[in-house]
Specification:
With about 120 residues, the chain is mainly β. The chain has no helices and 11 strands.
């Protein structure tokens, strides 16, 4: 199984970015896909989830109303559209699957992780 993220970068406060995560080696449509981030010196933080069975979504309170998760099962890809970005959104963003933990996350809580993509929000 391989998860490959892309789309990170430097953006000004209030700007937008779209992250992508393309999966291989798994039956993508059957898997719940997660976005998880880690700011420097801080713990892993669950951001959003797209459920495989029905594509229902969930968001952390810190991003609700600003971020939108979506998936294209034909392309084995999950997206995270990030709008109205704030400096506190600066982090390495990972996509992950094979787990369900959304609080006090550790890397071992999910079976598969991408390599991460850096998002920096600064003026």
């Amino acid at each position: 199984v391989q998860l490959v993220e892309s789309g990170g970068g430097l953006v000004q406060p209030g700007g937008s970015l779209r992250l992508s995560c393309t999966a291989s080696g798994l039956a993508f449509s059957a898997y719940d896909m997660y976005w998880i981030r880690q700011a420097r010196g801080k713990r892993l933080e669950w951001v959003s989830r797209s459920r495989g069975s029905d594509s229902r979504t969930g968001y952390a309170d810190s991003v609700k109303g600003r971020f939108l998760i979506s998936r294209d099962n034909a392309k084995n890809t999950v997206y995270l559209q990030m709008n109205s970005l704030l400096p506190e959104d600066t982090a390495v963003y990972y996509c992950a699957t094979g787990g369900t933990v959304v609080g006090n996350i550790e890397f071992e809580d999910y079976e598969y992780w991408g390599q991460g993509t850096q998002v920096t929000v600064a003026s």
